[in-house]
Amino acid sequence: MRIAFYAPLKSPNHPVASGDRQMARMLVKALEHGGHSVELASELRFYLREPESKSFDALKIEAREEVARLTKLWDRDGKSDLWFSYHPYYKAPDLIGLELASAFAVPYVTAEASYSRRRNVGLWADTQALVARAVEQAALNICFTQRDRQGLTDAIPDAALGMLSPFIDTSVFQEMPARGCPTRLVTVAMMRPGDKVESYRMLAQALGQIGRLPWTMSVVGDGPARDEVKAQFAGLPADRIEWLGAIEPAAVPGVLYSGGIYVWPGYGEAYGVAYLEAQAAGLPVVAQDIAGVPEVVRHGQTGFLTPPGDVAAFASAIERLLVRNDERTIMAAEARRFILEERSLDAAVARLAELLAKIPVS
Asked: Which residues contact 137 (CB under 8 A, 6 or more apart)?
C-alpha cells in the first residue's frame, strides 16, 4: 500500500530526540519492511502545551490550510491507500487525517491513540472529543499497551482495536561484546520538569540508601531541568556518577553494554523505549510497576518492578541485583532473549501485516 504517515505530536524528522520520535521512526521502518510505500504526509506539529483557546484556534487554522494543501496534492497526484496517524491524544489530536480520509474514502488508522476521562476538563475536553471521534471512525486503532486499550474501550466501546507490542530495531544489538562492569548502573532519560525530574529524584534517594555497596552509574540525558536533576544527586559521591549528557542515538548501545543493570523509576512512562534497548543489551531492569512499564519489563524474569513511590523497595531491588551475581546473570540473558525474539522489528513487521490485512483498501 501507499501509506500517508502523520505524527501530530512530533514528526519523525523532528530535531529533538525522544521516545515519540523514535517510535514514529520505528513504525515507518516496520511498514516499509512490510513492503509498503510510506510517505510523510505532513510536518505540521499540532501540539497544544496549555489549554489556551487562542493557541488552539491558531493551530486549527494551520490544520485547515494543511488539509487544503494535501487535498490539492491528492487531486493532482492521486490519493494514498491508507492514512496512518501516530499517537493522537488530548494535547495533539489529528485534525488533518480524518478529514482527508473521509473526503477521499481512504481507510484511517491510528497507533498509540490514548484517552483518559480525567482529562475532560475545560479545553482538554474539546481536544479529547476530537481524539474520540477519530478513534470511533478509524478502521483500526493499534494499541501498544493494555492501559491504552482499556482507556479507548471505556470511552469508545465500539472502536476497532488491535494490539502491537512496543518494539525496537534490534539489529545494533545482535552482536554481544564482552560484558561490562556488573556493578555499573545505567540510565538514559531526558531532563525535563514533571515525571522525568520525579524519576531522577526517586533514583537519587534510592541510591542514597545503598551507598555502602560499590556501585557506579552512567547517566545519559540532558534538558532544561539539568541543574535541578543534578542537585538531587548532590549528596552522593561525585566520583561515582558519570554525567554523559545528550549523546547520539548510535552511541547509546555502547553505554548500555558498559553497564550491568538499568535503573529508572519510570513515572509517567507510556512504556519506555529505553527499557527495550537496555534489555536488548543484556541489562536487567529495575523500575516501578507503574504506567506502561509492565508492558516492556517482565517482573521477576527480565528485571524487577517495585510498588509505585516505594523508595526502599526500589533501592532493595537494585541491591539484590548488585549482590546476587547468578540471579543478575540469568535475568540479563532472559532480558536479551525477550527483546531479540519477541520485541524486534521483524516481530513488529509480522504483526502489522496481520493487522493491516484485515482493512479493506479500495
From this structure: 98, 102, 108
Mean pLDDT check: name the lowest of 12-16, 125-129, 162-166: 12-16
For residue 7 the three cell numbers come to 505524527
The domain segmentation of the chain, as residue ranges, is 2-167+344-356, 170-342
Q: Which three cell numbers stand for residue 163?
A: 494490539
Task: State pTM to two decimals.
Answer: 0.90
Q: What is the mean pLDDT of residues 237-256?
A: 95
Residues 179-201 as b/e (b if ≥16 CB within 10 A, e otherwise) read: ebeebbbbbbbbbbeebbbbbbb
Split at pLDDT 50, 70, 90, the class of 19 is: confident
Of 334, 192, 215, which Cα lies nearest the Cα of 263?
215
| 261-263, strands of its sheet edge to edge | 241-245, 216-220, 184-188, 261-263, 285-288, 303-306
Task: Name the helix (H) or strand (E) containing 141.
Answer: strand 140-143
Q: pLDDT by residue (tens digit) across 164-217?
A: 999 999 999 988 777 789 999 999 999 999 999 999 999 999 999 999 999 999
Structural domain 2-167+344-356, CATH architecture: 3-Layer(aba) Sandwich (3.40)
User: Taking the mean position of all CA atoms in its chain, how far away is CA 252?
Assistant: 16
CA–CA distance, 16 with 62 (Å, rounded to integer): 22
Residue 135: all three cell numbers together: 478513534
Mean pLDDT throughout 226-230?
Answer: 97
Classify domain 170-342 at the CATH topology level: Rossmann fold (3.40.50)
Of 79, 1, 84, 85, nearest to 36 by C-alpha is 1
DSSP annotation of 307 reads P
